[in-house]
């Protein structure tokens, strides 16, 4: 009887192992590329803008001369717009999430709402800008005001907050509900005393992350007509306004290199604000999220 | 005076009925909030449709959809042919995808198949930061760093071109491709990998022959979503691509995308009710339809991939 033998082709094995090594290096380099670009971007923006970053930059209004230009009005505008966006988007977003997770029957309407929210998340921000321009600025005659900008921004980040809040609510274990029902609690009592407290860290984390997107958002507010030259602080929600990213865009678009450096200085401030917000979100996530 | 039993029962009943009133109203309140998102969509579609309709009472639909010249600002004889804006948009999107697809997918394979738990925990948050940089900062970076860098290789490259913002849009969407594709790859059961390893496959072979085919629909869904974001991206293009609606797919020319046109008009003072004012809605409508289609396609693919295992 002929003996069956397994033939191992050494050359072929070596080649396969070599390919694997090349693959590992290539995949790692591709991953590193993203990180290198990020580092380059941060270093570049920092070295470009640091010369204009001083106390006056934070306390001056926009100016024709780069050395006098500042972001006082832009910072104030951002704070005012957020003052509208935070409550509106949080209330609507968390309410929607509670309905979808706690009350909604499994029917076509619910599926439609969920599909609709995920599609809204994919709509470009300029289109939200067009909506805001038509509905808030013109139809409700709010004009090019903080109110119109804040509401538009709320709609823009609503889908993200809904998704974050849904995930936070979904991570609450079933036992918590059962324990509460066993004590005779009603649905609304459970939502108020069990669901919301347990989901708050998750909701806050998601909310801060989506708000940090709103702070950096430019296109939709440009559509609303936020202006770059504002030499006063807003005094009501009907004031005209500018925000930090729009101010940066305006400076970046000028031909003088000095103004582009001022834009970089503004970008540093914007990035610092975003990093602070993100760190806050991470702290909340690590400190308060309960593991069941 | 001590309340009688009768009074106590009455009180209890009242409390319970106010409780049940709350129980009955709260679902309705929350339903209204959830339904609000539908209202937003209706609002978007309605405004776009109405204003686009006005636009087409002034400009012929056929000229718009077939025209190859986009000169809305030519005082007496404006021309509204959408193709230059569409070709500009797709030039940017094509360059972006050429950057994001290989780099994003490689990152996903590395994170899901090669990286140690520790490396993954370090790298993923860094990529998330890359996704969190505001687009206006990317625009500044494209204009003042990437373009001069490219000019040192291509001396004839003008300040405003499609190449530089295209590359930067690509970099912006790398994290999205990487993290969504990695999630899809993670969903491939470990047993399938182990089976291949037991047969003597290398990691590369497992990645290319088991994991990628096994997560293909999830990967496609992530790529389509990324494409949709590249098409809708505004500020990078508005900052660094210039504002010259050019036909053709020449990346070294200044171009204008649909989004950049909308921004340009809304920043200038197009009179309310003028043809130019309505034109941004027609362009916005087209943009909305493009991105909606992409999202529906992506949804379709990601649903299929969930059903596999």
From TrEMBL, chain A:
<keyword id="KW-0812">Transmembrane</keyword>
<feature type="transmembrane region" description="Helical">
    <location>
        <begin position="25"/>
        <end position="53"/>
    </location>
</feature>
<dbReference type="InterPro" id="IPR035906">
    <property type="entry name" value="MetI-like_sf"/>
</dbReference>
<comment type="similarity">
    <text>Belongs to the binding-protein-dependent transport system permease family. CysTW subfamily.</text>
</comment>
<feature type="domain" description="ABC transmembrane type-1">
    <location>
        <begin position="75"/>
        <end position="281"/>
    </location>
</feature>
<dbReference type="InterPro" id="IPR000515">
    <property type="entry name" value="MetI-like"/>
</dbReference>
<feature type="transmembrane region" description="Helical">
    <location>
        <begin position="258"/>
        <end position="284"/>
    </location>
</feature>
<dbReference type="GO" id="GO:0005315">
    <property type="term" value="F:phosphate transmembrane transporter activity"/>
</dbReference>
<feature type="transmembrane region" description="Helical">
    <location>
        <begin position="146"/>
        <end position="165"/>
    </location>
</feature>
<dbReference type="Pfam" id="PF00528">
    <property type="entry name" value="BPD_transp_1"/>
</dbReference>
<dbReference type="InterPro" id="IPR005672">
    <property type="entry name" value="Phosphate_PstA"/>
</dbReference>
<keyword id="KW-1133">Transmembrane helix</keyword>
<feature type="transmembrane region" description="Helical">
    <location>
        <begin position="219"/>
        <end position="238"/>
    </location>
</feature>
<keyword id="KW-1003">Cell membrane</keyword>
<feature type="transmembrane region" description="Helical">
    <location>
        <begin position="73"/>
        <end position="100"/>
    </location>
</feature>
<keyword id="KW-0472">Membrane</keyword>
<dbReference type="GO" id="GO:0005886">
    <property type="term" value="C:plasma membrane"/>
</dbReference>
<protein>
    <recommendedName>
        <fullName>Phosphate transport system permease protein PstA</fullName>
    </recommendedName>
</protein>
<dbReference type="GO" id="GO:0035435">
    <property type="term" value="P:phosphate ion transmembrane transport"/>
</dbReference>
<feature type="transmembrane region" description="Helical">
    <location>
        <begin position="120"/>
        <end position="140"/>
    </location>
</feature>
<keyword id="KW-0813">Transport</keyword>
TrEMBL record, chain B:
<feature type="transmembrane region" description="Helical">
    <location>
        <begin position="162"/>
        <end position="185"/>
    </location>
</feature>
<dbReference type="InterPro" id="IPR011864">
    <property type="entry name" value="Phosphate_PstC"/>
</dbReference>
<dbReference type="GO" id="GO:0006817">
    <property type="term" value="P:phosphate ion transport"/>
</dbReference>
<keyword id="KW-1133">Transmembrane helix</keyword>
<dbReference type="InterPro" id="IPR000515">
    <property type="entry name" value="MetI-like"/>
</dbReference>
<comment type="similarity">
    <text>Belongs to the binding-protein-dependent transport system permease family. CysTW subfamily.</text>
</comment>
<feature type="transmembrane region" description="Helical">
    <location>
        <begin position="276"/>
        <end position="301"/>
    </location>
</feature>
<protein>
    <recommendedName>
        <fullName>Phosphate transport system permease protein</fullName>
    </recommendedName>
</protein>
<keyword id="KW-1003">Cell membrane</keyword>
<dbReference type="InterPro" id="IPR035906">
    <property type="entry name" value="MetI-like_sf"/>
</dbReference>
<keyword id="KW-0592">Phosphate transport</keyword>
<feature type="transmembrane region" description="Helical">
    <location>
        <begin position="29"/>
        <end position="56"/>
    </location>
</feature>
<feature type="transmembrane region" description="Helical">
    <location>
        <begin position="126"/>
        <end position="150"/>
    </location>
</feature>
<comment type="function">
    <text>Part of the binding-protein-dependent transport system for phosphate; probably responsible for the translocation of the substrate across the membrane.</text>
</comment>
<dbReference type="GO" id="GO:0005315">
    <property type="term" value="F:phosphate transmembrane transporter activity"/>
</dbReference>
<keyword id="KW-0472">Membrane</keyword>
<dbReference type="Pfam" id="PF00528">
    <property type="entry name" value="BPD_transp_1"/>
</dbReference>
<feature type="domain" description="ABC transmembrane type-1">
    <location>
        <begin position="86"/>
        <end position="298"/>
    </location>
</feature>
<feature type="transmembrane region" description="Helical">
    <location>
        <begin position="80"/>
        <end position="105"/>
    </location>
</feature>
<dbReference type="GO" id="GO:0005886">
    <property type="term" value="C:plasma membrane"/>
</dbReference>
<keyword id="KW-0813">Transport</keyword>
<feature type="transmembrane region" description="Helical">
    <location>
        <begin position="206"/>
        <end position="227"/>
    </location>
</feature>
């Amino acid at each position: 009887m002929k003996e069956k033998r397994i033939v191992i082709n050494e050359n072929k094995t070596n080649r396969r192992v070599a390919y694997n090594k090349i693959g590992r290096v290539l995949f790692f380099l591709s991953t590193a590329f993203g990180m290198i670009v990020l580092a380059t971007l941060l270093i570049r923006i920092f070295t470009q803008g640091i010369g204009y970053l001083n106390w006056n930059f934070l306390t001056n209004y926009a100016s024709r001369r780069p050395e006098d230009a500042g972001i006082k009005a832009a910072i104030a505008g951002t704070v005012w717009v957020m003052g509208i966006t935070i409550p509106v988007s949080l209330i609507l977003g968390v309410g929607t999430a509670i309905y979808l997770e706690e009350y909604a029957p499994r029917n076509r309407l619910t599926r439609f709402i969920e599909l609709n929210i995920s599609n809204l998340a994919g709509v470009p921000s300029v289109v939200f800008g067009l909506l805001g321009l038509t509905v808030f600025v013109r139809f409700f005659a709010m004009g090019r005001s903080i109110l119109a900008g804040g509401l538009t921004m709320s709609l823009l980040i609503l889908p993200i907050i809904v998704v974050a809040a849904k995930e936070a609510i979904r991570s609450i274990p079933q036992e918590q509900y059962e324990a509460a029902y066993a004590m005779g609690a009603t649905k609304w009592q459970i939502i108020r005393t069990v669901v919301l407290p347990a989901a708050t860290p998750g909701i806050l984390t998601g909310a801060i992350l989506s708000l940090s997107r709103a702070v950096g958002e430019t296109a939709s507010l440009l559509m609303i007509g936020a202006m770059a030259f504002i030499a006063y602080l807003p005094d009501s929600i009907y004031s005209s306004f500018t925000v930090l990213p729009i101010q940066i865009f305006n400076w970046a678009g000028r031909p003088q290199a000095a103004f582009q450096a001022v834009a970089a200085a503004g970008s540093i401030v914007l990035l610092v604000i975003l990093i602070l917000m993100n760190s806050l979100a991470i702290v909340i996530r690590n400190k308060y999220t309960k593991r069941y | 005076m001590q309340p009688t039993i009768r009074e106590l029962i009455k009180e209890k009943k009242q409390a319970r009925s106010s409780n049940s009133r709350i129980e009955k109203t709260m679902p309705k309140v929350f339903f209204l909030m959830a339904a609000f998102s539908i209202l937003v969509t209706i609002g978007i579609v309605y405004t776009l449709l109405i204003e686009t309709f006005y636009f087409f009472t002034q400009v012929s639909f056929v000229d718009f959809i077939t025209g190859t010249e986009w000169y809305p600002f030519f005082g007496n004889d404006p021309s509204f042919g959408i193709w230059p804006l569409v070709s500009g948009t797709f030039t940017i999107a094509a360059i972006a995808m050429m950057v994001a697809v290989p780099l994003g997918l490689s990152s996903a394979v590395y994170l899901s198949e090669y990286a140690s738990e520790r490396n993954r925990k370090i790298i993923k948050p860094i990529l998330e930061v890359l996704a969190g940089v505001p687009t206006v900062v990317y625009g500044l970076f494209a204009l003042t760093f990437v373009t001069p860098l490219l000019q040192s290789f291509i001396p004839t490259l003008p300040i405003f071109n499609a190449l530089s913002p295209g590359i930067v849009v690509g970099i912006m969407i790398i994290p999205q491709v990487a993290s969504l594709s990695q999630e899809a790859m993670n969903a491939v059961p470990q047993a399938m990998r182990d089976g291949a390893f037991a047969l003597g496959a290398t990691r590369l072979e497992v990645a290319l022959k088991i994991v990628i085919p096994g997560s293909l629909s999830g990967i496609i869904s992530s790529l389509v979503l990324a494409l949709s974001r590249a098409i809708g991206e505004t500020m990078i293009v508005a900052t660094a691509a210039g504002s010259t609606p050019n036909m053709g797919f020449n990346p070294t020319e200044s171009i204008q995308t649909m989004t950049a046109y909308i921004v340009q008009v809304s920043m200038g003072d197009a009179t309310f009710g003028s043809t130019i004012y309505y034109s941004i809605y027609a362009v916005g409508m087209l943009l909305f339809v493009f991105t909606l289609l992409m999202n529906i396609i992506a949804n379709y693919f990601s649903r299929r991939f969930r059903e596999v295992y």
